Amino acid sequence: MSDAPGPDPLQACADLLARGDPDRLAAAMARPVAERRLMLPLYAFNLEVARAPWVTQEAMIAEMRLQWWRDVLEEIAQGKEARAHEVAAPLAGVVTPQAVPVLDRLVEARRWEIYRDPFEDKDAFDAYLVATAGGLPAALCTMTGADVARSAISDWAWSTGLARLFMAIPGLEAGGRRPLLDGRPAAVQALAREGLGRLSGAQGLPAIARADGWLTRPVLKMAAQDPARVANGALGISPIQRNWRLMRLSWGML
């Protein structure tokens, strides 16, 4: 029998992120190792959930993939043995039962991406942003015992969710989705300005909870200044800006 150690579950999560979500991987690597041990499984879980609606054309199969993750979360809440899966196992090792509800809402919100129906109204749009972008910071606050107002998490999530939605719009539209209630430049600009305004209300979040939104402010600023960049898929920042913002994140000054 070999005494060689098995594969590092955190490395497996990092490898997944390197291929599918390098921005969140960069955020995790900018934080201390102790925080990274919480962030990497959560970020990998988020990646698996986010891509579930896109790996198949069959709505039923996509629904089953999302339900699989909801079952994983339910088992975590019940204290059951972790599933032998490269993300589910490390996720079960860090997520507390108290953090499960917000992660479950994150999974449920991704069902919108399976289909091609537009959002019913502004309330549905807002709920999608808060659920999809708020699950990670809310879970991390719960897991670390941070006492943060729910409104602060919601404001941060809405702004961060909007920035990520803006960055994803070309791909969403190519896939037949209608991600915005009003895609005219003036409406996009108004949303970006609203997002920037909401960031000011997101006070008190610890750096670990704000980390995956390290691109939020520059992306929203670009969209507010030139809303055509959203449709054109031109919301990236320069390598110098990326390094500077990641350095600020490492200092907890994002």
Description:
It is a single chain. The chain is mostly helical. It has a single domain, classed as Farnesyl Diphosphate Synthase, CATH 1.10.600.10. It is built from 13 helices and no strands. It has helices at 9-20, 22-29, 33-51, 59-77, 88-94, 100-109, 122-144, 150-174, 185-199, 207-210, 216-225, 228-232, 239-250. It is globular, with a radius of gyration of 18 Å.
Helical run tally: 13
According to DSSP, the number of beta strands is 0
Report Rg: 18 Å
CATH topology-level name: Farnesyl Diphosphate Synthase
Low-confidence stretches: none
Mean pLDDT: 94
Please give the largest β-sheet: none
Structural class: mainly alpha
The domain tally reads 1
Task: Give the amount of beta strand, in percent.
Answer: under 5%
Helix fraction by DSSP (H/I, runs of at least 4):
55-70%
CATH architecture: Orthogonal Bundle
| SSE series | HHHHHHHHHHHHH
SSE inventory with pairings:
Elements: H1 9-20, H2 22-29, H3 33-51, H4 59-77, H5 88-94, H6 100-109, H7 122-144, H8 150-174, H9 185-199, H10 207-210, H11 216-225, H12 228-232, H13 239-250
Helix pairs in contact: 1-2, 1-3, 2-3, 3-5, 4-6, 6-7, 7-8, 8-9, 8-11, 9-11
